[in-house]
Design a protein that fits this description.
Helix content is 32%, strand content 14%. The chain is α/β, with parallel strands linked by helices. The protein has a single domain (35-246), classed as 3-Layer(aba) Sandwich (Rossmann fold), CATH 3.40.50. Strand 6 (208-209) and strand 7 form a beta hairpin. Keywords: Hydrolase.
Length: 249
């Protein structure tokens, strides 16, 4: 953008891109105290398949719900991101400090990540990676919770959403298998029942098809059987209990 457009409500770009390449954040001064919630995750959080320029990712819908409460929602989703290993960006364990704990006014973090750890093994993006067991992911989540608790940040675990049939007509064919689904189920069971997180958001229960629980509900499916569409993203955000998010009930 040419010239000084700091005071402009609607800056006028000379050209646009469909990816956020150069801008990492915008900090705005507020006279009133503001709390921050960070959503850390992968492409489901980053907004793959959400309508372009429409703010229909699930963190966008959550931000809309919280804006009148002086709460900012930061989207720390990286498409292709994983909990344990690098590839498309740094793994979540390594970027927790930068993307979550160092953010101003941080009060809570929602963790929705792990499906790529489960599914990438022996595929085009990670041909030499072996299978990841549920116990490995659980150990990673425990590191996140320990570090968040050490900094007094409330940490909310989100269950991994269904993915049967995911990307089957793409170079990522094989992303889903019955064995990988077993890992997802084991991880979700631990997230729900372990008590390790301060709270749990059951995105799996929200988005799954009751008639075929390993799949996304058709109304929420973007079409690739992995990423929720706009309606699915809204349902996810609407399912978040704000009182539970901040520990007020």
């Amino acid at each position: 953008m040419a010239g000084d457009q700091v005071a402009s409500d609607t800056p006028s770009p000379e050209s646009t891109l469909s990816a956020r390449v150069f801008l990492s954040s915008i900090l705005v001064e507020r006279t009133a105290p503001t709390r921050t919630v960070v959503a850390i995750g992968d492409s489901i959080t980053d907004g793959a398949t959400a309508t372009m320029d429409a703010n229909t990712r699930w963190p966008d819908f959550l931000a809309e719900r919280l804006v009148d409460n002086d709460v900012a929602v930061l989207n720390a989703g990286i498409s292709g991101g994983r909990l344990l290993r690098d590839k498309m960006g740094t793994n979540a364990l390594a970027r927790l400090e930068r993307d979550v704990l160092a953010q101003p006014g941080i009060a809570a973090v929602i963790v929705l990540i792990g499906i790529n750890d489960i599914s990438w093994n022996s595929m085009v993006f990670a041909p030499h990676d072996g299978p990841v067991a549920a116990a490995e992911l659980i150990a990673g989540y425990r590191q996140l919770t320990a570090r968040a608790n050490l900094h007094g940040v409330r940490i909310i675990g989100a269950t991994l959403t269904p993915f049967e049939g995911a990307l089957q007509d793409t170079p990522m064919a094989g992303y889903y298998s019955a064995e990988k689904e077993q890992v997802r189920q084991a991880v979700n069971r631990w997230i729900r029942e372990s008590g390790e997180f301060d709270a749990v958001i059951d995105f799996d229960a929200v988005t799954r098809d009751p008639a075929h629980p390993a799949r996304l509900l058709p109304a929420y499916d973007s079409g690739d059987h992995l990423h929720p569409g706009d309606a699915g993203n809204k349902a996810m955000a609407d399912a978040i209990d704000i009182g539970v998010l901040f520990g007020t009930r």
